[in-house]
Amino acid sequence: MRPPLWRGLTVPYVTRWSGEAPLGGRPRHTTGGLLAYPIPQEGDWTYGVLWARTASDAGRGEPVSHAIHTARQLTCMRDGLCQMCGNPARTSQGRTLWLLPANEAERIRGNGTPWTRTPPTCHPCMPTALDQLPWLRDGDASAFSVAAAKPAAVFGDIHSPGGHVEVDITVALDETGTLPDLLGRQLLVTLSGLCEEPIVPRSPWAPYLRRSSPDKGPY
Fold this sequence. Notes:
single chain, alpha+beta, six-stranded mixed β-sheet, three-stranded antiparallel β-sheet, 4 helices, about 30% strand, disordered C terminus
């Protein structure tokens, strides 16, 4: 699978396009207290969480800067697929390759919680990711090969039964009292068996690449 190009730049596999509209309408609580879409569908819930339902039509319209397609991010995190091309991000030893921004790498080296919502990056896509993803390009990214990745938390919005919405909240999967109120947008995984790997050199043209938006980071 080759990632599409937009105005000469590679569009990551996990990016949402403007033609991929939200689906399902506004979620609401059922009489049993579970957050659901007005017309539920099989597969709406994973890990006890309702997930944002979005059309899947990559390449339709324009790429939306810093917008992550929920279903593709979930697939990458669970199946070890590259965030750039959507292919397996496996090393020759059968490990999964992760390219992490500086803040996450520093937390892991400092014995912090080794979890991330940044998807894997395969070896061939590493130079492109370093050149074109602002959250990797403008910092000291680090590469790790990982033995295993276990679902750990969900990033999304909490919908209270009264209608109030609290956005951009991370909820651990063991917080079972909050999960029924959560509309998930991204999965976090805990990485184990980490081994730091050399970085594939970025392109010498990286400083001259166009910036598509302010450097807000991906999430």
